Amino acid sequence: MRLDIPTMLVLALMAGGCRRENFDDQWHRKSDEASKTASAMERDMQARLRVAQQAGHGLDASPVEAASSGP
Question: Where is this region: Disordered (predicted)?
């Protein structure tokens, strides 16, 4: 018995061989990833600011904090 490609795809889907991620799942996953990335960037920027202040470069925290807080 020879199966054509559409039939094999249907069989794979019925068997649970692959799951297509729906739009909401994909949206939430990407949103979570973006949130984690933004949080990591914020922590990195704050750490760099502390290091620069401790090194005595005279950086003022207010412009950086204003930029990091957004509009």
Answer: 29-71
Domain range spanning residue 39?
5-66
pTM above 0.70, yes or no: no
9 and 17 Cβ atoms separated by less than 8 Å: no
Name the more confident of 34 and 20: 34
Tokens found for residue 31? 């949103």
Measure the CA–CA gap between 3 and 24, rounded to whole angstroms: 33
For residue 71, is it within any domain? no
64's tokens: 């950086």
